[in-house]
């Protein structure tokens, strides 16, 4: 398998206002994106990759001259990899409200000239999909070979099948759900409260005070990270290993290796992620519930879908359990749609969708080979 090598982000500007589900709108915004591979003459080989909470448009490849700049799904996307860039034109778009280049809370509001901060409008999965569709319009792509995403990205892939049924031939949704459970919403709320109650948050306008609510971000990341791992992986990696040979008998110092690991993850996250973006994205997760408009009937919700589907889940993923994927599969089968489903026995928990599991990658490789056989040159 080859490597993509150095890649370069691109920007696309939009003057026309984007209507949002909340009733608000946003104008004069930018979206950052990357592409890999070549768009064929028929413009029929494009695959959109949708990102999850703390990822971005940088799906694959590396940035020239930067250490540790590998794309977040580089093990999946590239020459000869399951999503083969020798066959497909792959697009990654940074979502509106992110802190990785697209217009978000850290940018200036054109109506006031001041940084948005907490005044950035609430965005939803549906808003992101509408914004992505505008990028594809500018690229001259009327129909995608596939939309692919994991976790929150999988929700976006599902929403593509609902909002733009004629614009994709395949929907590939990995480790996702038709909506969050009450437990998942609860985890998100605890993380948000950690940020909001940080004295440095200043109601979301901390930029003006020259501070960052790092304490809240650290706790939010620690909570999230626990939910991404399985109990088996945590036990295997850390168990009850101690930092020192003897007990310190302290309620505040680090005693166990798992504590050290979580603090490291929290510290790292607080150095690069924006607090307002975290609030926006977790709320978008909470709001996603396409069946709500159909009285909770998921089968009726997918009646408008026209594409083919692949869903995959992981046995130890307790945050987006296989049962949630099976709910989607049943709804699709109720509508007599073409559905493939893989339930992969993997020990890694929710993070499994990001890892190079040979069975998981084998499923995606076979499915993308199927899609490649359908592509018009």
UniProtKB/TrEMBL annotation:
Catalytic residues (positions): 151, 317, 350
Keyword Acyltransferase: yes
Gene Ontology biological process terms, A to Z: homoserine metabolic process; methionine biosynthetic process
Parts of the chain that traverse the membrane: none
EC code(s) of this entry: 2.3.1.46
Source species, domain of life: Bacteria
Binding, substrate: 221, 351
Site label Important for acyl-CoA specificity, positions: 319
One Gene Ontology term, aspect cellular component: cytoplasm
Residue ranges of domain AB hydrolase-1 in the record: 45-356
Pathway where this protein functions: Amino-acid biosynthesis; L-methionine biosynthesis via de novo pathway; O-succinyl-L-homoserine from L-homoserine: step 1/1
InterPro entries assigned: AB_hydrolase_1, AB_hydrolase_fold, HAT_MetX-like
Subcellular location: Cytoplasm
EC class name: transferase
Single GO MF descriptor: homoserine O-acetyltransferase activity
Keyword terms: Acyltransferase, Amino-acid biosynthesis, Cytoplasm, Methionine biosynthesis, Transferase
Catalytic activity: L-homoserine + succinyl-CoA = O-succinyl-L-homoserine + CoA
One Pfam family it belongs to: Abhydrolase_1
Family label: Belongs to the AB hydrolase superfamily. MetX family.
Protein's job: Transfers a succinyl group from succinyl-CoA to L-homoserine, forming succinyl-L-homoserine.
Subunit structure: Homodimer.
Protein name: Homoserine O-succinyltransferase
Annotated source species: Paucibacter sediminis
